[in-house]
Amino acid sequence: PGRMLEVGTHIGASTMHAASAISAYAGNGDNEPRLTTVDIGNVNDPVSKPWLQYGTRYSPADLVKELGLSKMVRFVTSPSLQFMADCRERFDFIFLDGDHAAKTVYQEVAAALRLLNPRGVILLHDYFTDLRPLWSNGIVLAGPFMGVRRIREEGVPVRVIPLGQLPWPTKLGSNVTSLALLVKDAA
After folding, report:
1. Virtual CA dihedral for 4, 5, 11, 13, nearest 10 degrees?
2. Is the pTM above the cut of 0.85?
3. CA geometry: angle at 174 spanning 58 and 97, to 5°?
4. How many CB atoms neighbour CB 74 within 10 A?
5. Beta carbons of 69 and 108 less than 8 angstroms apart
6. How far apart, in whole angstroms, are the C-alpha atoms of residue 176 and residue 135?
7. Which among 78, 122, 128 is positioned nearest to 102, based on CA atoms?
8. CA atoms within 13 A on the CB side of 80
9. Which helix (H) or strand (E) holds 95?
10. How does pLDDT run across 102-120, given as a tens digit for each residue?
C-alpha cells in the first residue's frame, strides 16, 4: 500500500513496522508511500514523555527517525473520529487499533470505509470472532467484533478475515493473533 492510516499510535511499535514495510516502495515520484498515524494524545510530547511509562526509551517519532523514515510518517494528535471526518485523503490500508469500545469501532469502521481506496483493506486489532477467547487467559475484548457485527447487520457489504495463526510467536506461548482483515465485498 502506498497510503496508510493507523488509528492508535500508542508507543509506535506498529508505526515503526508499517513505516519499514512501506519504505520499500519509496522513490516512486508522486506516489511516495505515506503513513499517517493518529492518537488522541501527543505520543511524542517531550515534556510528559508518555512512552517512558511503557518501558520504552524512545518516542514513536524517535523510533521512526532512527529508521530514517521521518519524511514518510505524519503524526497527528486528534480524536480518531474527528480526524477521519475532516480527512480528504484516501488510503490503501487502514489499521484500527485505538479505542476498542463497540460504538467507537462501529463509527471508525464506517469512517474508514469512506476513506478507503478501491481494493483497500482495513486491519482490525483485538477482533474476537463470536466473542470466543483466543488465548488461555480467557480475555475477550468485545468492541471490535460488536462494532463490525453492527455494520454488517446494517447491510454494509464487508467481509471479515481473521488471521488466526501467524508463522511467529505472538503471546502466551502461541502463534495466535487477534488481527483480522476487513474487506469490501465485491458487488
Report:
1. -30
2. yes
3. 45
4. 13
5. no
6. 8
7. 128
8. 27
9. strand 91-96
10. 999 999 999 999 999 999 9
